[in-house]
Amino acid sequence: MSNYKNSTYLCVIPARGGSKGIPNKNIKDLCDHPLIHYSIKAAIDSSIFDRIVVSTDSFDIAKIAVACGAEVPFLRPDCLATDKAMVEDVIVHLLKHVEKYDKRYDYICLLQPTSPLIEKADIIKANQLLLDKKAVMIVSVGESPINVSWSQEIPEDLSMRNFSFNMCSTNRQCFKGTYFLNGAIYMGKWDIFYNKKNYYEQETYAYKMPYDRSIDIDNEFDFKLAKFLLKERIE
């Protein structure tokens, strides 16, 4: 690996207290650990970051995040704690605090606590891709379990008259893989995050992750699936 330690790295993990889909989602027990434990542990185990900081509005999340090994230097204001608050604004708010009381870092890595299947190797490889490509930003993507070209609209009357069966008869091996934004990792230069520039208009590259590590917990089904996959990994 390139000598990335010539640069400075800040890891940011946003974790809002309120959650409509799953109450207290970010600290809900998942295989004997709070959900946020997994992203913090992956960040620590990667040995890349100079600081790992959690942005939250919740005292409970802050307490657990610190116990897991992260820093929580402040609680974010209420205006950035609603379900309509943009994560970009949350990140800028945190970076302004870090710049005021610490310094600017060369690279920022945004990890989501709702991606518990992430491994330290994913962070390390994403960083290596960032350096190899001399990229401005690396964004993680998950491999889709189905090919999007097989998906078609169904009319209101449920008729299959115009459904393309030729598409469905094509061998799976003939399709190239398709990917979706899995939200697990955003890693890039400080200025891109600080100035809220479009992440995808810059020199941005995709870090590919398999579907079984791309689960983003948004509802109870996602949570059950993540629990199943984690148990498989542990056993």
CATH-assigned homologous superfamily: Spore Coat Polysaccharide Biosynthesis Protein SpsA, Chain A
The side-by-side strand order for the widest beta sheet comes to 4-1-5-7-6-8
CATH class: Alpha Beta
- Uncertain residue ranges: none
Mean pLDDT: 90
Enter the CATH topology name. Answer: Spore Coat Polysaccharide Biosynthesis Protein SpsA, Chain A
CATH architecture: Alpha-Beta Complex
Count of structural domains: 1
**Proportion in β-strands:** 15-25%
Radius of gyration: 19 Å
H/E series: EEEHEHHEHEHEHEH
- Which outline best applies? globular
Estimated structural class = alpha/beta
Helix proportion range: 25-40%
The main β sheet shows up as: 6 strands, mixed
How many β-strand runs? 8
Number of helical regions: 7
- End-to-end Cα distance, whole Å, is 31 Å
Describe the structure.
The structure is a single chain. Helix content is 31%, strand content 19%. By secondary structure, the protein is α/β, with parallel strands linked by helices. The strands form 2 sheets. Strands 4-1-5-7-6-8 form a 6-stranded mixed beta sheet, with helices on both faces. Helix 1 runs parallel beside helix 2 and helix 1 crosses helix 4. The radius of gyration is 19 Å and the shape is globular. The model has no long low-confidence stretch (mean pLDDT 90).
List the helices and strands and how they pair.
Blueprint: E1 9-14, E2 29-30, E3 33-34, H1 36-46, E4 51-55, H2 59-68, H3 87-101, E5 107-111, H4 120-132, E6 137-143, H5 165-169, E7 179-189, H6 190-194, E8 204-209, H7 220-234
Parallel strand pairs: 1-4, 1-5, 6-8
Antiparallel strand pairs: 2-3, 5-7, 6-7
Helix pairs in contact: 1-2, 1-4
